[in-house]
Design a protein that fits this description.
Distance between the termini: 132 Å
Radius of gyration: 44 Å
Largest sheet: none
Helix content: 40-55%
Strand content: under 5%
């Protein structure tokens, strides 16, 4: 990775104030124009910027500055960094082991059915597939559609549960809340609810009807009993 100078203008300010380097040497080292370095020296540019010591940051040595001050034609060189920072690799599609690649269509079918809110790019990140494959499985035009069975990608080991939850949460953020029709539940009108009789009142009415019948039967039995006794006396 090519070395670059940190905060070139702040470094140029420090070199102007603390060294006897020429404007051309400072301009070459800080990747600035010599006239801009001259404006910095005159106080016409970079006002309010605090100078940065390149020696303390490890980008320039005192010996290198001394050599440049002794020789106006010497070009300053950045010091070798003490710590090498590896280049960040560009994150591409998720790598899927060869032994598990045959399970990807089943995982895609599971995601399409159980999480329709997921976008194709999110499914690609989860199982490491292409958008054309996802479209084929969604439209049932995949060459092996007849034999596919939805299977959880977490169970198959194609992604972690944390990654799946994160993608689902991202997809659900901009999604509107489901309506009552989508949930399959609707509220009844006020007129319909007013006509309904509470269940406990219906039970009380039923008990009243049963009790009234029992009372009438008891009365009829009492009325017939004296007649039978009179018949026995004669």
């Amino acid at each position: 990775m090519a070395q670059t100078l940190l905060m070139p203008k702040a470094t140029a300010i420090w070199l102007v104030d603390n060294t006897a380097l020429s404007f051309d040497q400072i301009a070459q080292f800080c990747k600035l124009h010599p006239l801009e370095v001259k404006a910095i020296a005159d106080g016409e540019a970079a006002q309010g910027i605090k100078g940065l010591d390149p020696i303390s940051t490890g980008q320039l040595s005192r010996d290198e500055i001394a050599r440049a001050e002794a020789n106006p034609n010497h070009k300053l060189k950045l010091s070798e960094p003490k710590v090498r920072v590896p280049e960040s690799k560009r994150r591409g599609p998720r790598y899927t082991p060869v032994s598990k690649r045959q399970d990807r269509p089943n995982a895609i079918l599971w995601l399409v059915r159980n999480h329709p809110e997921l976008k194709d790019a999110q499914i690609s990140r989860l199982v490491g597939t292409t958008k054309s494959t996802i479209e084929q499985i969604r439209e049932r035009t995949h060459w092996n559609s007849a034999n596919l069975a939805p299977m959880d990608p977490v169970t198959l080991g194609l992604c972690s549960q944390i990654d799946l939850d994160m993608e689902v949460e991202k997809a659900s953020k901009g999604r509107p809340l489901p309506t009552a029709a989508e949930l399959g539940a609707t509220l009844q009108s006020a007129q319909a609810t007013e006509r309904l009789t509470p269940s406990y009142e219906r039970e009380e009415e039923k008990e009243k009807e049963i009790d009234a019948d029992a009372v009438f039967r008891k009365l009829s039995s009492l009325r017939s009993a004296p007649k039978d006794e009179d018949d026995d006396q004669y």
